[in-house]
Amino acid sequence: MRYYHPGSISISRVNQTLNVKYADFTQITTSKTVPTVLLAIADLEEVVDLLLVQLFPPRNGIRLLGVSLSSLEERRPPQLRLAL
């Protein structure tokens, strides 16, 4: 896993998946792909909130809730060239 200083890169095309396991051992998975640039953790949290809204109020108690990110594409600022 790589860690970057906040603001050093941005992430685009994130696929966020929400896994929910209920008390009766049934489970569902829902996902959303975000094609726009995400600059902060708050941007990712917004998408998770949208996925969670669809599930509440839960029909049974929730015993496990998982969020995963995949298909991450880094968008680095272009490197400047020195004229030599």
Structural account:
The model is unreliable at 1-6 (pLDDT under 50). The strands form two sheets. Strands 3-2-4 form a three-stranded antiparallel β-sheet, with helices on one face. It contains one helix and five strands, in the order βββαββ. A hairpin with a 4-residue loop joins β2 (14-22) and β3. It is α+β, with helices and mostly antiparallel strands and 84 residues long. The radius of gyration is 17 Å and the shape is elongated. It has one domain. One of its GO terms (biological process) is DNA repair.
Please list the strands of the largest sheet in the order they lie side by side. 3-2-4
Rg (C-alpha, Å):
17 Å
From N to C, what is the helix and strand string? EEEHEE
In terms of structural class, how would the helical and strand content be classed? alpha+beta
Uncertain segments = 1-6
The profile of the biggest β sheet is:
3 strands, antiparallel
Helix content: 10-25%
**Number of helices, counting only DSSP H or I runs of 4 residues or more:** 1
The backbone outline, from C-alpha atoms, is: elongated
Number of strands: 5
The domain count comes to 1
Query: What's the overall average pLDDT, rounded?
Result: 77
Portion in strands: 35-45%
